[in-house]
Amino acid sequence: MLFAGIDIGSLSAEAVLLAEGRMAGGEIMPVLPDPVDSARAVLQRVLERCGLRQEDIAYAVSTGYGREAIEKQALANENISEISCHGFGAFSLDRSVRTVIDIGGQDAKVIRVDERGKLGNFVMNDKCAAGTGHFLEVMSRALEVELEELGEMSLRAKKPVAVSSRCTIYVETEVIHFLQRGTDRADIAAGINQAMAARVLALVRRVGPEREIMLSGGVAKNPAIRRQLERDLGCRLIYPDIDPQLVGAYGAAAYAMQTGGPS
Fold it and tell me: Which of 34, 75, 92, 113 gets the highest tally of CB atoms within 10 A of its CB?
């Protein structure tokens, strides 16, 4: 049987297909103005890539922005909160996971789950860009480098700068001042990533993490953030064996399989 999970975020849309308990396909694309259009487009992409049709889906779950509208448009059988889907997705990928750090484009979430993958506690930062992927996007533009380069660049730093401000606008001003003084870009990048990790670490401490900890979301692809969080937490983070941006959609698909599968 085929099960689908659709996760519409603020910047990207994801869809995952599960068949016979295994991932049959996953797709990521930039969001469209309407979340329903995003859901329809990303689902169609993954179906086409797998040579399947929407009629083949036994059960689908939507999550993220517009999840209720997606369900009403018959693209999903039910909708579940993104917090629950990210937690259950990480747990479904690795049953040892008890804490999930998910850093997306517009928010950061730290989620604690129990031994069944059910939501226990969570904290979320969605009122300030600092500590989110958008923060890194702004800083990469200030450094005039691609976002994907920011992590690797900072690993080459010899004397990371101290970024004192927390507000994205003020940090951007600091970065410009460092550049004007001729500071090495790698050292600036390292300071940016360390500041980002510190902001996320504050969220982790608020939720009271339990090991094992999985890092998900687009920022999980930044090796400098991963390394700094591991250093601060004193443990190795679990990196998902799928694209970390797909964890929420994977969780939605796992819920679909649990709900709509054979009883």
Answer: 113
